[in-house]
Write a structure and sequence with these properties.
Layout lengths: L10 E2 L5 E6 L13 E7 L8 E3 L3 E8 L1 E6 L2 E6 L3 E4 L5 E5 L5 E8 L7 E3 L12 H15 L6 E6 L2 E7 L2 H4 L6 H9 L8 E5 L5 H9 L4 E4 L9 H6 L3 E4 L3 H13 L1 H7 L4
Parallel strand pairs: 14-15, 15-16
Antiparallel strand pairs: 1-2, 2-3, 3-10, 4-11, 5-8, 5-10, 6-7, 6-9, 12-13, 12-14
Helix pairs in contact: 6-7
């Protein structure tokens, strides 16, 4: 008879939920003929998991307690205790806790979950920007900067699915060449101790100034809106162990192209090409 003690602690995983792997045939220590794996997941109040997808495996969420909104592809709906959601292979999905208590569910993968099968933070280019509320918040910051007469680049800092810092480029507004969007965001977040569980969002690939701050503070993941108008310092960040994800959003690209066309001298000043 195969009986296992699965009272194991939850750990934060790549998609930002707290997870305990209850059953995985490759980790049992004996030969078990089973295709699926089971995990116990927890999403705290107010937290949203990162968009992610499984390339080959399908997944089922069975909600044990709590309420939230389940997103699968371009569809979403409220979900709660006793309900089940099926996620086909390849579909981008995430879940947000909109209730007043932790959202707890079983996650069952078939075939069994493998790290190399999961892609975290990737959204198809055709998907609307609202698929990621944190990037939408960064875009709102960029638009705020534009309204103030500045350079339309915005940034937010996220920890545990919650925005803890916001900012936008204030070179013009503050008459300060150092206040790039990411720097403004980090300054507004204040002293937060360790950054190792944070994600920095920016509407544009960070320059070497901002990438230096990312590396200095050991921010492990950077998600950007686009890099077509400015390639930035991606290779520098990746060389220092930072995971960089480029959404390649047309909305962000058009915003920068319009600005560069209308104010080329200001843009060249900002990137040191005067």
């Amino acid at each position: 008879m195969d009986v296992y003690d699965v009272r194991i602690p939850h750990m934060r995983v790549a998609d930002n939920c707290l997870l305990a792997e209850l059953f995985h045939p490759l980790r049992i220590g004996k030969d078990i003929q089973c295709r699926y794996s089971i995990a116990h997941a927890q999403v705290p109040v107010g937290v949203t998991t990162l968009p992610h997808r499984l390339i080959r495996s399908s997944e089922v969420y069975y909600i044990l307690s709590g309420t939230g909104i389940m997103h699968i592809g371009d569809e979403h709906m409220e979900i709660g205790e006793g309900q089940l959601a099926y996620i086909p292979p390849g579909k981008v999905q995430w879940i947000e806790n909109t209730g007043t208590r932790d959202l707890i569910f079983l996650a069952i993968c078939d075939p069994l979950w493998r790290e190399e099968d999961e892609v975290v933070g990737e959204i198809p280019p055709t998907a609307p920007v609202l698929d990621d509320p944190f990037m939408e918040a960064a875009i709102q910051e960029a638009e705020k900067g534009k309204e103030e007469g500045g350079i339309p680049i915005g940034s937010v800092l996220v920890r545990d699915g919650v925005i803890i810092g916001r900012g936008h480029n204030r070179r013009v507004q503050n008459n300060d060449p150092m206040v790039h969007a990411e720097i403004d965001c980090l300054q507004n977040a204040g002293r937060i101790g360790s950054y190792q569980d944070c994600i920095l969002y920016s509407t544009l690939m960070p320059c070497f100034l901002c990438a230096g701050a990312v590396v200095q503070f050991h921010i492990p993941r950077v998600i950007v809106g686009e890099s077509r108008t400015f390639s930035g310092a991606r290779e520098f960040m990746e060389a220092h162990g930072v995971t960089v994800i480029d959404y390649d959003l047309n909305r962000c690209q058009m915003m920068m192209e319009t600005f560069i066309r209308e104010k080329p001298e200001l843009w060249n000043e900002d990137i040191g090409m005067v």
